[in-house]
Amino acid sequence: MKEKPVVKATQSKTYDFDAIIIGTGPGGEGAAMNLAKSGKTVAVIERHQQVGGGCTHWGTIPSKALRHSVSRYIEYKENPLFQMDDQSSNLTFPHILKHAAGVIRKQVQLRSSFYERNRVKVFQGNASFVDAHQIRIEQDGSPDQIISAEHIILATGSRPYRPQNVDFTHSRIFDSDTILSLTDDVRHIIIFGAGVIGCEYASIFRGLGVRVDLVNTRDRLLSFMDAEISDALSYHFWNSGVTIRHGEEFDRIEGCDDGVILHLQSGKKMKADCILFANGRTGNTDKLNLNAIGLKADSRGQLKVNDNYQTEIPSVYAVGDVIGYPSLASAAYDQGRIAANSIIHGNCSTYLIDDIPVGIYTIPEMSSVGKNEQELTAARVPYEVGRAQFKHLARAQIANTSVGSLKLLFHRDTKEILGIHCFGERAAEIVHIGQAIMMQKNGGNTIEYFVHTTFNYPTMAEAYRVAAMNGLNRLF
Q1: Are 192 and 278 in contact (CB under 8 A)?
Q2: How many H-runs (helices) and E-runs (strands) does the chain carry?
Q3: Residue 386: what are its φ and ψ, rounded to 5°?
Q4: From residue 9, how far is each of 14, 42, 116, 118, 155 by CA, in Å?
Q5: Statement: the pTM of the whole predicted model exceeds 0.90
Q6: How confident is the model at residue 11, as a pLDDT?
Q7: I need a surface site. Which of 277, 319, 419, 434 has the fewest CB within 10 A?
Q8: What residues are paired with 126 via a beta bridge?
Q9: Per residue in 379-421, pLDDT tens?
Q10: pLDDT, position 92
Q11: Angle at CA 411, nearest 5°, toward 409 and 414?
């Protein structure tokens, strides 16, 4: 096959740019904005037609927009004001995709304006290494282009893990990216993988009235969460009609004209209209030509970095899902900023916080920050627990969102807050109130803050006062 001609970018100095960033998701955006605002010349390369990365187009934004629509739909159906004889309840997955499309469009417009306003050059095409300072950009219908920079940041994100023995070209077999192209009004779905993505989509489909079989490869849901919180989700799923099968591994997936059959290694099999395979993700490094710079990714396409997000190649950095844990959009943005600081100032003294908040957008939401009970018990830390049930809060009663609770873990002696765990509507927002206090130094981190602070009434934030008093009353 004839090679496409290469157009070399005009060089007015040693390098065309101070930094090239591959990927425009949260990690790439955080790095680009920090570098540009510091006076650096910056280029970003995005393989898709629009900026935003997987976070905006297939991951965080669309799934949370879908979740919001379904959550409001559930509230509508359960509100006595709207429980009329002619109430329509035929909301389908394709219907709620329209709302997600609108949110994505607004996000793309906003993020595009960031690059324009900060004079960041955006290249569209597939990026790969020529050497440690040069990047080749391939674009269909155009000659290849090579651009260079002193520093290169990889923010290429991740994609759903696809086992080779699963036929993802079948019209009824989906992953967490392709599920957004679902056009059928399905009545029964199998979700293989009960991690964050699997649980979120189980909530979405069950909220639409779809029969859901959730297959978990482990012995409990979201085992990295506080046990009581994950148990609350398990009970809520069970109570809403989700069938959960723990400790299962798939043997094969059989695609049929009228559905799919999941064969499990235990000998069980189940049939549904379609299946969502949501068991892990792979870093997008396979097309970067890492061999050209002597860099190697692990079996899941992830790269190793140091505290400054620098790889083994001094001029190359990596942030976000491509380096693995914590694989959160929020953390990726901060990682991008920290990597940029390292480039600007040399070895940087700014680090990602130790206690990274986790938000899981099931229905209801789950969120936590800090230590859980299992970790504190294993470390022999003398802690106490304060709880507030949402059903006792006036605001929750008014909004008819009484499912859930707030749980505070604090040191018995110092009264420092050690962990915050929340299950219920707006949990991902509520947890940040406690996080702000937990991060305080020089005695500012104390559960007594919530007792001596006046909260607006009625609010969900009032749960902190209730939980604090509940916990302090346990001391003796």
Answers
A1: yes
A2: 12, 23
A3: -120, 135
A4: 12, 14, 20, 21, 22
A5: yes
A6: 44
A7: 419
A8: 138
A9: 999 999 999 999 999 999 998 889 999 999 999 999 999 999 9
A10: 87
A11: 140
